[in-house]
Design a protein that fits this description.
By secondary structure, the protein is an alpha+beta fold. Helix content is about 40%, strand content about 25%. The chain has eight helices and twelve strands. The strands form two sheets. The protein has a six-stranded mixed beta sheet. A hairpin with a 2-residue loop joins strand 3 and strand 4. Helix 2 runs antiparallel to helix 8. The longest helix is centred in the first third of the chain and has 39 residues. The radius of gyration is 29 Å and the shape is elongated.
Length: about 325
């Protein structure tokens, strides 16, 4: 009894030290117990940032095909593609944006044919991803009649195309499919000029945006003239020569919030199965993406970085 009385008197005299030690033990135990959660949070945050910072052509999927389809055939193919994508990776898909591009043609500027720059008709989005929801008009409006007169197509263009050729609403841009043509073959009538509500929105798929100019080895600039998806095949069938090959794309944006490190093996398997499901379709559909490599590299890096993070946590606990 005397012993315990002695201990209590000593404890009462040095209660500050005992309180400090007790809090230290509690905090160290809590930190040690929460270290796996802390490390996982850091790694998952790194994965989100990696996907958000990557170019869409790397972190997202761009399905593509080439051919000459009728409206009915395209509608059937579009339905098949959307069914396959929604069947394989519904959890990870943020948006699926269908895009159609016509064959390319060359503009006439100041009476001269520009052979190192080109333009095409572009249908961008449909239904829930209708482009009208993602743009605002700088001037003009969507055309009520895409073919106001023979040889003329009413289009909506981005600011870059308008500035490049000095175009305003109501202006006409002559064009030719043949780069050796001696005179314009048809004309684009500018019905509206638009800009994106948010140029960084994944909807625009980065450099693939129809409102941005694109360059290539052979071309100084490439532009898109927007037409309504419902009118695309009528416009192309009326204006461009028969047998023209079109470009068909389905831009699938991946939601980074749905991907964590534990799902990386599953997502890679689903991407492989998606390729296999799309290959038998007609025309054949391929996928452009660097997502497989991004996920593989991050998985390897996260494995390597976990040990230093645990070691750092242990040092703090010991201190």
């Amino acid at each position: 009894m005397t012993f315990w009385a002695f201990i209590l008197r000593r404890a009462a005299r040095h209660w500050q030290i005992l309180l400090t030690l007790s809090l230290g033990v509690v905090l160290s135990t809590a930190m040690l117990a929460s270290s796996p959660v802390l490390v996982n949070t850091v790694v998952e945050f790194g994965l989100r940032r990696t996907l958000l910072a990557a170019d869409p052509s790397i972190s997202d999927l761009r399905l593509k095909a080439f051919g000459r389809l009728t409206p009915e055939t395209y509608a059937g193919l579009d339905g098949q593609v959307q069914q396959v994508v929604n069947g394989r990776i519904p959890t990870f898909t943020d948006q699926l944006v269908p895009v159609i591009g016509s064959r390319w043609f060359h503009p006439w500027v100041d009476g001269s044919l520009v052979i190192d720059e080109r333009v095409n008709f572009r249908s961008y989005g449909s239904g829930d991803t209708d482009i009208r929801q993602f743009v605002t008009f700088v001037a003009g409006e969507w055309p009520s009649d895409p073919l106001p007169e023979p040889g003329v197509v009413a289009v909506v263009i981005g600011e870059e195309l308008a500035e490049a050729y000095g175009l305003a609403v109501g202006d006409v841009l002559p064009a030719s499919v043949n780069n050796t043509s001696g005179e314009p073959e048809f004309s684009l009538q500018i019905s509206g000029i638009v800009q994106p509500l948010d140029g960084g929105d994944p909807y625009w798929f980065g450099p693939a945006s129809p409102l941005r100019s694109q360059s290539a080895d052979r071309w100084l600039a490439q532009y898109a003239a927007l037409v309504d998806p419902a009118a695309f095949f009528d416009v192309v069938g009326t204006i461009l020569p028969d047998g023209s090959t079109h470009e068909y794309y389905w831009q699938v944006t991946i939601d980074p919030a749905t991907v964590d490190t534990g799902q990386i093996p599953l997502l890679r398997i689903l991407l492989r199965l998606l390729r296999e499901d799309l290959r038998p379709l007609t025309p054949s559909i391929t996928i452009d993406t660097g997502l497989d490599d991004v996920l593989t590299n991050f998985a390897n890096q996260s494995t390597a970085v976990r040990a230093p993070l645990y070691f750092l946590t242990a040092e703090v606990v010991l201190l």
